[in-house]
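DM from R.C. (forwarded with permission)

"hey, sorry to bug you on a friday — could you get me a structure for this? deadline for the figure draft is monday and I only need the backbone to look sensible"
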Amino acid sequence: MDALTHTLFAIMLGRAGLNRLAPRATLLLVVAANLPDVDIFARLGNQAAWLGYYRGRTHALVLLPAVALLAAGVGRVATRKGFSWWRALLVALIGAAIGPLLDCATDNGVRLLWPFSDKWFGADLIAGFDVWIWLILLTALVIPWFSRLVSSEMGARSSSGRGAAIFMLCLLGLYGFGRYLTHRRALAVLDSRMYQNEVALRTAALPSPYNPLRWTGLVEGPGFLWRYSDLNLAREFDPGDGTIFYKPDAAAEIAKARQTEGCRALLGFARWPLWSVTPVAEPERGVEVKLIDLRLGTPRDAEVWASAILDGEGRVVRSSFRF
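My reply, with the result:
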């Protein structure tokens, strides 16, 4: 998920009681929760190579202790006295687990088992950011400030915010459970239909960051893929309302494109790969072989893609990658 969600969630855990475990515990939690996302800096170089790092190495379970150690080092610098490495490491380890575990609920997912496996773990319950989660966490953040403001006017003792943090974390859990139920419902809607007179081989429902009832539906059948950009659970589902994409019969051309760096990188990320093969003016008898992830758009509007231009002899003359 996004850095704001990681940060606010870490602050709430601190207020809920973890800030009692060690000095600067909230700082430790925030730093550790965001450290795994340092893989974003690899994007400054080769983007195709960066995709191999994306939500992999720094998010892997095997490296959580190293992330916690780095965060604890930051806490040691910020703490002048009363510092305990063991307490700091415990808090930082909890913080380091926040990012990967929250990312497991998203539609992008995370590669928790690197380097033993490149499998992506993603439950498709939450988008990369979710405005309702922001609202819950931001509300919990301002409640203590509002309480202190009221208390100062009345001369009463102000609240520490612990109760509000615990309540909002419980509310967040209920929201996640609601997302789980609506996701199950969206999948049931997709699985209950026939497509081109065929039973779906697999389906997926991808979340909206704004409306829990709206999903993006994906269906794979023999020889085709369907994409439903607005699967709204508040309305009757029409199987013919989506867009169908046929799988190209161009195994030789696709095999050549697979060997390019960009296609290899995107295939390691894409859970719903879609190939297209179209003729081009140059070179003569040439074709463009393009790969997208149908989760992130269609061949017409996708901002994430890899392509290879093949000449009439089937040789790759140039390739492109965009993420």
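R.C.: lifesaver. Residues 57 and 63 are 7 Å apart (CA to CA).
me: no worries. The longest strand covers residues 224-232.
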